[in-house]
Write a structure and sequence with these properties.
- The chain is an alpha/beta fold.
- The chain has a single domain, classed as Rossmann fold, CATH 3.40.50.720.
- 42% of the residues lie in helices and 15% in strands.
- α1 crosses α8 and α4 packs parallel to α5.
- The N and C termini lie far apart (39 Å).
- Bound molecules: NADP nicotinamide-adenine-dinucleotide phosphate.
- The site of NADP nicotinamide-adenine-dinucleotide phosphate (NAP) has 27 residues, from α1.
């Protein structure tokens, strides 16, 4: 029997692969055999070096995903540089914090554009390639969107982030419904509280840090590497009959 988690010969786009969760996922996919297109506005030099050290191919694809202008180029450049596209991980995202009574339109639009609009249009561009590949007998595709605890909960002082990540949950299900018959699985990973730049302010706030830790059954912040197993599962044939699922990797946060 072949290993259903083996990603040898697969090409994965990971957005926001230079740091944090994106870097952790890129390395996990590479360790399982995938070649990596590291997409982002900051050059993912460290990630690319680490992927190559694992014996896989890795290329930087520069793109600022605050608009949808680069999405088709991201797909085209990946296919050109790495010879195909089988896995898309929509990880790049931002957060803005302010009381809802003071929240600005700029903070609303910036978060929605990066976390939801660009995610949808990159899914669309990748799916057009994957569907053609499937119809030509070359295997379909795997799309993994990065959701959040705020796909399920309300949060506080992050209205556009909550709206965007709740949107990612709905979009993941909609795209799964449309593309399941076209050889693509669409699922999401909802990370719990993971120690990255995104949560730096929370980790430094003594009260919030204590409150968060008290609620996590695992008793610690997550590490980007903790997302690796879920990403490999959802990127591999092991998950071929898993559709529209939002998989929490949260140390038990949602179980409380
Ligand atoms: P992070 O360390 O801040 O990483 C965010 C990544 O997104 C960075 O690579 C960043 O690039 C990239 N990015 C942001 N805006 C971009 C743009 N306009 N164009 C291209 N790339 C852009 O935070 P993280 O925690 O790893 O976050 C990764 C994802 O996980 C996000 O979607 C976040 O919402 C989600 N998430 C995180 C947590 C957590 O606890 N950390 C929990 C739930 C969900 P730069 O380095 O250039 O800014």
């Amino acid at each position: 029997m072949t290993n259903p988690f083996d990603l040898s010969g697969k090409v994965a786009i990971v957005t926001g692969a230079n740091t944090g969760i994106g870097q952790g996922i890129a390395l996990a996919l590479a360790a399982a055999g995938a070649d990596i297109a590291a997409v982002g506005r900051s050059a993912a030099t460290e990630t690319v070096g680490q992927v190559r050290a694992l014996g896989r191919k890795a290329e930087i694809v520069s793109a600022d995903l605050s608009t949808i202008e680069p999405v088709q180029r991201v797909v085209d450049e990946t296919v050109e540089k790495l010879g195909g596209l089988h896995i898309l991980v929509n990880n790049a995202g931002i957060i803005r914090r302010a009381d809802s009574v003071d929240f600005t339109e700029e903070d609303w639009d910036a978060v929605m554009d990066t976390n939801l609009k660009s995610v949808f249009f990159l899914c669309q561009a990748a799916a057009r390639h994957m569907i053609k590949q499937f119809e030509n007998g070359g295997g379909g595709g795997k799309i993994i969107n990065i959701a959040s605890m705020l796909t399920f909960q309300g949060g506080i002082r992050v209205p556009s982030y909550t709206a965007s990540k709740s949107g990612v949950g709905g979009l993941t299900k909609l795209l799964a419904n449309e593309w399941a018959s076209k050889g693509i699985t669409v699922n999401a990973i909802a990370p719990g509280y993971i120690a990255t730049n995104n949560t730096d302010a929370l980790q430094k706030d003594e009260t919030r840090n204590r409150q968060i830790l008290e609620r996590i059954p695992a008793g610690r912040w997550g590490d980007p590497a903790d997302l690796g197993g879920a990403a490999v599962f959802l990127a591999s044939s092991a998950s071929d009959y898993v559709q529209g699922h939002v998989l929490a990797v949260d140390g038990g946060w949602l179980a409380r």
